[in-house]
Structures are given as C-alpha cells and as structure tokens.
Amino acid sequence: MNQDHAHMKQKIKETVDQLDQQLRELSLRIHANPELSFKEVQAQQWLTEPLEAAGFQVEKGISGLPTSFRAVWEGATGGPTIALLAEYDALPRIGHACGHNLIGTSAVGAALALKEASPQLPGRIIVLGTPAEEEGGGKIIMANEGVFDEIDAVMMCHPQQKTMVLRGALACVDATFTFHGKQAHAASSPEKGISALDALVNAYAGINSLRPYLKDDVRVNGIITKGGDAPNVVPELAEAVYIIRAKTVEELKTVMEKVYRVVRHAAEGVGATVDISEGLIYAERNNNKALASLFQQNLEDMGIEVHDPPQTGGVGSSDIGNVSQVTAAIHPYIRLGDATTHTPEFARLAGAEEGMIELNRAAKALALTTYDLCADKAALQQVRNEFEDWKQQKDEG
C-alpha cells in the first residue's frame, strides 16, 4: 500500500470515529423500536435522514417495496459502482435478535465516512435499504427487478459469535401446508368427519421419517400453526409452516419434491386435501474470495482476528445469496459476543456496548474495503474476474 492510500485509510477510520456518537444513537433508536419485515417505516426514515443531509440522492420505495431505499453519491468519474446493504427488520417478540440495527447503521456510517473523508473518490457509492430479510426476501425481489445488475460489488456486515469473512449459507424456502377436511361432532358422528389435523400429523411424522435419507446439510424444520378450534369437533382446517434448506437451489428443489410428496400422500390417506404455498427461494451464497480477502486484510490491520468458517453445519440462509448470483458479493461477520443469533441474549448485546463496538468496526471495514475497490483498479479487476469466471462455469455446468 502506498503512502497516499495508507494516509487516506487512516483518515477514513478517524472519520468513522468522529461519526461514532451519531451512529450509536441511530442504531439504538432502531433497536428500541423494532419493526417486522415489510413494516420498517421508522427505520427507513431514520437511516435515510443522515444520508440526505450529507448530499446523497435518496429514493424510497424501489422495486415496489415501500420500506426499501436507494441512496447514491457520485464521486469522481471513472470508478466502480459499489453497494453497501442495509438491513433493518426485526424478529417477532425478540426484536433485533439478529442485529439488523447494527447492519443497517454500519452501511450508512461507512458511506458517510467515505464521502466526508474522500470527496473525490473515483466511484459511485450506493446504500441500498433492503427490507424483509427475516421473512419475505426483500433482496430477492430487488435482484429480480434488476437492482444489482449494474453494480460491481456488494457488501454488508453481520454481527456474530466470531469474526469470519467466508461463511456460507444454505438455499432455503418456506412452505405452508394447509390441510382441508370436513367438520363433524367428534363424539356423536365422527364417521362423518375428515380430520385435517390427522392429515397434518401424519405429514409431520412422514417428513421426520425422511431425515435418515437426506444429506447431512439438509434442514427441514416446521411448526403447527393451526390444529383445530375445539376438541369435540373434527378439525376441518389444519396448517403447518416449514422451512426447507439444502446446499444449493438445485438440491433444495429435490428435497422439496420429497417433502411435498409426503404431504400430499398424508392428506390423501385420510381423505383430506392440501394446499401448498411457497415463499421466495433464497439461493445459496457465492462468496467472492478476492473481495473477502480485502475485507479480511482491513480487519486484521485493525487488530481483529479472523476465523475460518465451519466446515460443516453452523450456517443458516440469507437473501444476499440471490444477490451473489448476480454480482460479486460478500457477507462477512464481526464478533459481537458469545450469544447466538435469534435469541433474547443476542438482542440485548445488539443494543449494548458490545453492539456499539461491533458497529464501529463494521463501518470501518466496509468503508475501507470500498475504498480499496475504488482506489485500486487491480484489486477491483481481481474481484470482477473471479465473479465472471464463476458465472461462466455455472452457465456452462
């Protein structure tokens, strides 16, 4: 790294520190007012306010998603287009137990620091507000609408139990099984009824019987959301919601066929019928190793130890997987604490001092890596070459 680049990167880190109190207050405000997927009205407003004040061109409600946004800053000409992704939806009952208050704010903080520290940076910096990561797949909708087609690289940073830059993610889909039977009095005329609940329970057991014959990385998890209205009435309606995961979209579709076959046979076996509805398919994650290497170097330069991802298990799913099929993308993690995501303990950390420290580090790493891509054409080309090679292999295979 030449002296000019080293000086500018130091200035970027100092600028993030100058913004630290503002970022803390923003993150804590979102944390204290959790909003569910597609309902992130306050978070959208709070995240876009400082970007508008800094001169970013802000557009709300892109891709038909009212709580999405795009904030653009045009630096000097001749550079790449880099997107920093902001997530800000929460979970039911346990709030920001995935730390999206930190994710959204770190993207905003990185963009603000870049514009202030390096106003002539060659490049186009975009903060994309991507709603409904937890349930609904906002990034999938945005990817399908072409939002990422002209973007050279995409980044976001997630709090976790340990710092990693190459952790993968499974393809997944949520499926709702609605069984329809026929009501009857459960004591005086049960023979006239068809139990939708029995069909569901048989399906539940049948799905469990599949497990020994599925690959180790396949996950099929479900809950019963409706089992009937009264114990003395044969249930005419029963419902279950499942999340099905596999290593790739192709493998996921195979598992879905097996699960759906079980569900249909379970309904047929008791004379019921079943409706199957699917959510959007979350694709597997294609981590860009060259981009991850830049991010890791910036973390290590800050004295942060980076760990290898788990070789098996230990992964979930995210809609950035669909983005990574369109352009170069990474989804690194920075340690927040010992709690696991989607727990009350993690939600507490996301609003505590541990969360504020992670926020500062994430904003710095995002800003520094974006600077690398804009200031070093060779680094950018390596990132793009890797993605184009992967895309060609996928198209051919």
TrEMBL record:
Protein name, UniProt field: Peptidase M20 domain-containing protein 2
A molecular function (GO) term: dipeptidase activity
Coiled-coil portions: none
SUPFAM superfamilies (alphabetical): Bacterial exopeptidase dimerisation domain (SSF55031), Zn-dependent exopeptidases (SSF53187)
Entry-linked InterPro entries: Amidohydrolase, Bact_exopeptidase_dim_dom, Peptidase_M20, Peptidase_M20/M20A_hydrolases, Peptidase_M20_dimer, Xaa-Arg_dipeptidase
Gene3D superfamilies for the chain: 3.30.70.360, Zn peptidases
Pfam family, one: M20_dimer
Recorded GO CC terms: cytoplasm
GO biological process: folic acid catabolic process
Protein family per UniProt: Belongs to the peptidase M20A family.
Superkingdom: Bacteria
Residues in Peptidase M20 dimerisation domain copies: 175-267
